[in-house]
Amino acid sequence: MGPGMNKKHTTVLLVLVVLVATAAAYQLNAPASQASSTYCAKHPGHGKRCPPTTTTVPPTTTTMAKSPPFVVVCGIGLCLDGQSFVVKGATAYGQYGNPASEIALAKSAGINTIELVEFDKDYHTLSDTESADTWDRVDAFVAAAQAASEHVILNLSEYGQSLQAAGDNAVTTDWGPYLSFVAHRVNTVSGETYATDPTIAMVELWGEIPAPDGDGGGCSCTTAQMQSFFTNTLAEWHALSPVLVSSGGFSYLNDSGSGIPWQAVMSDPDDATCDMEINSTPDLDTTTPAVTSYCGGLGKPWFLSAWSSCLGSSQFSGDLDHFPTDAAMAIHATQMYAVTRGGQPASYPAMGTDFWNLQADSSEASGSCDIGPQVPDTWAAVQEAAA
């Protein structure tokens, strides 16, 4: 014990030493969250004692542009952006070079969907099915429809008909390369890829396909080959695009011996909708109840993909396409719309319908199937149904 130090002083000194040592040990072993703020401010990120220096960045909100929704199947109908969507449609045959006027005409009638069918520049010429002359016109029409908030249906029937015209068997030919061409095409006006363009409500493969028994000229195929064609071709499009695909409107189903495997096709999960046409009394009285009853049991939408009100004399017994006056045409149009709303003989409402053909003429010529202001009674029936 040094000079001037007594026992009391020694005890105090020992206590101070213990306290200092304890504090130092605590600092060495404290978790980073408890490290001395003073120390860490002077020695940022120093070993385990101080947390790494961080800068608090306020959260940011990124507003993503909402992609336009696709038309989708919902139960026995269609939906668009969560709401029921009914196709109020018409074909635009002969008007592909005039998209602005045709779309304006559609708007004036309340039509929300325009079907593009027989759109090749050179009629049923196989070399033209993928040509720029054909598809540049289609591009312009689809882009104009998009700009006007209209939808389109792409009907690819002309490819099958062009194969037939070239002497090929359209049913046993693989449509895969053609479907891939369509799906991967980039619209030269809008920049949209067809496979992902929500302007396209649906693709129809082949409306009025000729029957194995020879109806419609015959398909030069068997029932089994036709079923295989639709099974494969529907699946090929389904693998390429989320856009709905269907067989296209069947005719000849009133003939039980037609050989068309319509039930097998319509029950295919890749066939989005049950498509049929009404061109005759048997189509109305036999095909309509058969298709709607069958597809109602499947819980699938049905689509009246074609009907006509043409001015002219009847072409055959039971003809429901030709009528002698505008007034008679209007009565037929009203009946077709009533059927699509679930009226007799349909068993439930359709997802919509297309009529052949939307066009404004200076006057209605005999034999013409164009519907526009030139047939005021029929035009009023179209507008009333679309209201």
Account of the 3D structure:
- The chain has 387 residues and is an alpha/beta fold.
- It folds into two domains: 48 residues, no CATH class; 316 residues, TIM Barrel.
- It contains eleven helices and 13 strands.
- The strands form four sheets. Strands 8-7-6-5-4-13 form a six-stranded parallel beta sheet, with helices on one face. Strands 1-2-3 form a three-stranded antiparallel beta sheet, with no helix packed on it. Strands 9-10 form a two-stranded parallel sheet.
- Strand 7, helix 7 and strand 8 form a beta-alpha-beta unit.
- Helix 10 runs parallel beside helix 11.
- It is globular.
- The N terminus is likely disordered.
Strand content: 5-15%
Task: Indicate the percent of residues in helices.
Answer: 25-40%
What oligomeric state best describes the polypeptide chains here?
A: single chain
> For this structure, what is the CATH class of the largest domain?
Alpha Beta
Based on DSSP secondary structure assignment, what is the total number of beta strands? 13
Query: N-to-C terminal Cα separation, in Å?
Result: 111 Å
> What radius of gyration results from the CA coordinates?
35 Å
Can you identify the CATH superfamily of the largest domain? Glycosidases
> Please, how many helices?
11
Please specify the SSE layout and strand pairing:
Elements: H1 7-29, H2 37-42, E1 71-74, E2 77-80, E3 83-85, E4 87-91, H3 99-109, E5 113-116, H4 132-147, E6 151-155, H5 157-165, H6 176-184, E7 200-204, H7 223-240, E8 244-246, H8 262-266, E9 274-277, H9 281-298, E10 302-306, E11 310-311, E12 322-323, H10 326-340, E13 352-355, H11 376-386
Parallel strand pairs: 4-5, 4-13, 5-6, 6-7, 7-8, 9-10, 11-12
Antiparallel strand pairs: 1-2, 2-3
